[in-house]
Fold this sequence. Notes:
By secondary structure, the protein is an alpha+beta fold. The chain is 49% helix and 20% strand.
Amino acid sequence: xxxxxxxxxxxxxxxxxxxxxxxxxxxxxxxxxxxxxxxxxxxxxxxxxxxxxxxxxxxxxxxxxxxxxxxxxxxxxxxxxxxxxxxxxxxxxxxxxxxxxxxxxxxxxxxxxxxxxxxxxxxxxxxxxxxxxxxxxxxxxxxxxxxxxxxxxxxxxxxxxxxxxxxxxxxxxxxxxxxxxxxxxxxxxxxxxxxxxxxxxxxxxxxxxxxxxxxxxxxxxxxxxxxxxxxxxxxxxxxxxxxxxxxxxxxxxxxxxxxxxxxxxxxxxxxxxxxxxxxxxxxxxxxxxxxxxxxxxxxxxx
Length: 302
């Protein structure tokens, strides 16, 4: 039988009121990038630096820096600036300035005796950090897969970002023939859903502040603030939260918080299922089990 995906969350997140601000930040970053490129052109002498702003969509000094790193990596031995410039057809003074910058950043090392350059410890540490992060995410995904398979649910990992958003960082699908589809990367208001109740319970905000944010939320199933507030308080007391079809009708989400060493909520792990899949006792059992998984995930990811 072919598995059927049901997209329960995607439609709610089509309109993001915070997107205009994101575009403003993107434009500001673009302006800073152009200004910095202009400064680079004013402070270097090589003829190639006339084209430091852009060649099409390529920033030439950055492209040359990566070419130099790839060359040194493939060469596997130190090389002088003149050799690098000749082999890569880069203006000698431009190549020297790029190398000097990368030495300052620690990604390239310079031997004063041989006047030669080689890959630095900084680039190795950067790669090691990336590999370690990849290993952490792989271990976290394996644990999430275990939850999905054990309870036959869609497992989601939500991360708090900025002052008022959560983002879906990772998804592991249920092994069932019928499953709930959720797309990684979608963002939601931080107080919505089961994960949102945990954020509210651990936010340190006043009841009035949370009520103000609650009034802007959209629910599939009618929910009063008094009922929501009671659920937030219960989440704070028992250590897990549930959304019983309020955010997305017909869908139940159970979530447990993941805290960092400073006891700040950084992530929430959720089990998402069809309404009626578990009775009240079953939901409580899944919630308690998720708390244990959350502790294990904190040890992996934080």
